[in-house]
Specification:
By secondary structure, the chain is an all-alpha fold. The chain is built from three helices and no strands. The radius of gyration is 16 Å and the shape is elongated.
């Protein structure tokens, strides 16, 4: 791979990390603020929201191989 390909790959990974972090945070916010409507499924959706948030933060922190 050339140097330009590594730059675009890194940029795409960071963009996806930011996007997943925002989606995970919104997912967690709406899950825990509407727990009355979700009832017994609040825990399930809470765990899924936290998982998406962790994946987004992980993509932001990890460096791709060069």
């Amino acid at each position: 791979m050339s140097e330009g390909d590594t730059f675009w790959l890194s940029l795409a990974e960071k963009f996806l990390g930011v996007l997943l972090t925002i989606i995970g945070a919104l997912f967690a916010y709406f899950t825990f603020t509407s727990s009355g409507a979700l009832g017994a499924f609040t825990g399930l959706f809470g765990v899924l929201a936290i998982a998406v948030l962790i994946v987004g933060v992980f993509l932001l922190l990890v460096r791709p191989p060069e």
